[in-house]
Structure formats: structure tokens, C-alpha cells
Design brief:
By secondary structure, the chain is an alpha+beta fold. The chain has 4 helices and 7 strands. It has a single domain, classed as Gcn5-related N-acetyltransferase (GNAT) (Aminopeptidase). It binds coenzyme A.
Length: about 180
């Protein structure tokens, strides 16, 4: 079972931690697309199993064009003096027949900025946005082989759901569903 399906139940409105050099903002326009693509390439460069490059046209088609994406649910962490992008995460809201499910996509922190709390900060923004919209649980898929991600999500309180799958990659062969 290589794909891990994780869930966190939110029991209180998450606080936003502070990192002195880092600010978080939402997606503002097409100029963010290459920033996002480069961040993912850098973050997943050593990932096993690997993830494929997603370019601007694919972003526009598969992400921006989808019903579950919104600029206000895509976050970028950047340095506050030079606006260097250091991390990103996206919250998808998928409409089911009976309910809407929030799910985490493309959490990525540049290797040069790891272990200073960037991912924790991005996730606090994402979880706060879920809470404010009335959602009390968040789901994601990740790969068992991505050990840092697994450890990170466990630290934040994400736990296995009973739906763990025998698929080898998150969301078939596409990285678009990777948390
Ligand atoms: C997983 C990832 C997003 C973590 O980003 P990060 O900014 O370094 O994480 P944080 O600094 O916020 O870590 C918060 C806590 O998570 C845990 N954690 C994070 N990375 C860890 C690692 N490599 N090993 C063990 N624990 C880890 C620690 O408890 C950490 O707190 P600490 O540093 O005080 O011990 C980053 O390693 C990354 O981008 N990986 C490649 C892309 C990826 O796998 N994305 C997720 C796809 S599902």
C-alpha cells in the first residue's frame, strides 16, 4: 500500500505561527505560475517515486481550469525583504453529491528553507481557511516513500484514514493530487 490517505479533524481555529523573515500571500496572477512550477521542481527533485514537471500550460488547463481551484486557496510563502518564493500549498474544494470535501495539494518547500517552519505556517493558513469556511476535516494523499512528508503530516496531527489504497502513486500517475 503505497498511497497514504490522511485526514485531520479540526477542533479549534488554528493559530498562525510567526517566522520573522517569511510572509504568506495568495496567488495573485499569471506571474505566480512559473514561481509555483519552479518551487515544485526544486522541492520534489529528489522525491522517490519522482514527480513529473508541470508547466504553465498544464497548470492553466488542469488546475486553474478546474472547478475546485481558487486563487484565494493557493498560498505562497516568500521572504519579506526579497520576495523570494520558498513554499506553496493549495486547498482544493471538491464537490461531491452530498458534500464538499477540502483536500490538500502540492505542499512544497524549497530545500534551502526546510525545517524552519515554512510548511507548518502554510498549513496553518490552509487550515484556518478551512475552519473559517465551516469545514472541520481536511484530507490529503501522499506517498509512503516520501518520508519527510509523512513525518511532517504526522507531526501536525494527520492520521491514516481507513481508505488507504494499493495504488502506487497519489491520484493515479498524476502529481496533481499529491499533498
Ligand atoms: C514535507 C515538507 C513540506 C516539510 O516542509 P518544512 O518547511 O521543512 O517543514 P516544517 O519546518 O514546517 O516542519 C514542521 C515539523 O514537521 C516535522 N518534519 C518536517 N520535516 C521533517 C523531516 N524531514 N523529518 C522528520 N520530521 C520532519 C518536524 O516535526 C518539524 O518540526 P521541527 O523542525 O521543529 O522538528 C518538505 O520537506 C518538502 O517540501 N518535501 C518535498 C515535497 C513533499 O514531499 N511535499 C508533500 C507532498 S504530499
Amino acid at each position: 500500500m503505497n498511497v497514504l490517505q490522511l485526514r485531520k479533524c479540526l477542533v479549534a481555529r488554528p493559530e498562525l505561527p510567526e517566522i520573522s523573515e517569511i510572509v504568506v500571500r495568495n496567488y495573485v496572477g499569471p506571474g505566480d505560475i512559473p514561481l509555483w512550477s519552479n518551487l515544485l521542481d526544486a522541492a520534489f527533485t529528489a522525491a522517490q517515486p519522482p514527480v513529473r514537471h508541470m508547466d504553465g500550460s498544464e497548470f492553466s488547463r488542469q488546475i486553474q481550469g478546474s472547478h475546485w481551484w481558487s486563487a484565494k486557496r493557493m498560498w505562497f510563502a516568500e521572504t519579506n525583504n526579497t520576495s523570494e518564493p520558498v513554499g506553496t500549498v493549495t486547498l482544493g474544494l471538491r464537490q461531491g453529491k452530498t458534500r464538499t470535501s477540502p483536500s490538500i495539494h502540492w505542499l512544497a518547500v524549497h530545500p534551502a528553507w526546510r525545517r524552519v517552519g515554512v510548511a507548518r505556517l502554510l498549513m496553518a493558513h490552509l487550515e484556518q481557511s478551512c475552519w473559517d469556511a465551516g469545514f472541520r476535516q481536511v484530507d490529503l494523499e501522499t506517498h509512503r516513500g516520501w518520508r519527510a512528508a509523512k513525518k511532517f503530516y504526522q507531526t501536525l496531527g494527520y492520521r491514516n484514514t481507513l481508505r488507504s489504497s494499493t495504488r502506487t502513486k497519489p491520484d493515479a500517475s498524476n502529481r496533481s493530487a499529491s499533498g
